[in-house]
Amino acid sequence: MTTESLSERDKKHLWHPLTQHKLHPQMLAIAKAKGAVLYDEHGKEYIDGIASWYTCMYGHCNDYILEKVHQQMQRLDQVVFSGFTHEPAVRLSEELIKILPANQEKLFFSDNGSTAVEIGIKMALQYHFNKGEKRQIMLAFEDGFHGDTFGAMSVSSLSVYNGPFEDFFIAVERIPVPTKENITDILKQLSSRLQQNNIAGFIYEPLVQGAAAMKMHDAEGLDQILRLLKRHEVLCVADEVMTGFGKTGKHFASDHLTTKPDIICLSKALTAGLMPMAITSCTQDVYDAFYSDDMAKGLFHGHTYTANPLACTAALAGLELLLSEEIQNNIQRIIVSHQRFNEEIKNHPKIENTRQCGTIYALNLNVKMERYGNLRDKLMGHFMENGVFLRPLGNTIYILTPYVISDGQLQKIYDTIKSALDAL
User: Fold this and answer.
1) Residue 3 · residue 11 · CB < 8 Å
2) Which segments within 106-195 are labelled E, that is strand?
């Protein structure tokens, strides 16, 4: 048996995401996790302040979810979803449709957030193609991020991710996120632009742009944009991969809006962090544009593990927990706790601004730093040394914890942020 640590063994063969290995050769080995806590290979504990990229919202290794998936493993592990169906997928469709915005009718399964977006884009483009309309341009927000596959990269605008690939993208035009100051200008320019009738769809992160450092915009301005686009038959694609399943205080960020999307992209917390899976939902109208005697009008997109029975079972168990009184009370508890922390911290001299949407809390430091620069790494190091896993986005510190986090664990996150501010 090798005496090398996991971190040392890791270096031999593994290539990690969002990592320049020459600058960051050392990976922290996590041996286990439970609730809101990660444990490294030496037994040190870290409060998971970002729910492992917004996935484990009901806590790591949740006993209820584990038991449900264990039971399913005894019956059906995997089966092709082309030509077959199964109970977990059917039940998930029935339960998820109940809480999605009321205009959603059909669900298309895939593997992750990027592919959920990829499918949403393909739906929007092919919808108009199937109707005989030449609409080949997607509209997107500035500073949006929608994933790493080519369509998803195309509609994203964070160049740190896109640089070498931009010559290969689909056609995309961008508008600013709405504010009270710019909404009139956005609507005026958009009204003029829409006269060309060549925009197929508009993809947007409703209310919170995650990778843009939790940049937030208000529902009223977004509603006005969506209403205008719908009048011109532009399909509205809500990327709720990050915002879905309770994080904004409602089941979905789209629930804060009166104008509902035509297509919704879901992943991350969908399966409670246990297994990879994604869903792209759509209206009956979108589905009907693909429903034809012509085989070529179908949506020819498929993944080997589409609607995996175990992942569907995890998602069903997660939905049960989301709708439970306990989790709904926890969501409200976290919202109030963040509000109290904000009152305490918002006037700190090292803070430029703060913002909150549901359980998502973010603050900007009035210190310039690169997204993946040395000062940002030093800040992250401070959090980890103090047993808190937070992953700053440049000069933005954000909190998005599992819903099962305790008040004491929340307080430790707050205290560690305060000590980091004092150390700057």
Assistant:
1) no
2) 106-110, 137-141, 172-175
Angle (CA) 88 94 95, round 5°: 85
Q: Where are the beta strands (DSSP E) in 146-262?
A: 172-175, 199-204, 208-209, 215-216, 235-239
Angle at 22 between CA 17 and CA 28, to 5 degrees: 55
Give pLDDT tens digits for 187-216.
999 999 999 999 999 999 999 999 999 999
Nearest alpha-carbon partner for 175 in 129, 226, 135: 226
Q: Which tokens belong to 294?
A: 């012509």
Other CB atoms within 10 Å distance of the CB of residue 244: 27
Q: In whole angstroms, what is the distance from residue 305 CA to residue 307 CA?
A: 6
Half-sphere exposure of 210 (CA within 13 A, CB side): 23
Strands 137-141 and 199-204: parallel
Q: How confident is the model at residue 370 (pLDDT cuts 50, 70, 90)?
A: confident
Note the pLDDT tens digit of each residue in 3-29.
Answer: 899 999 999 999 999 899 999 899 999
Q: Model-level pTM?
A: 0.96
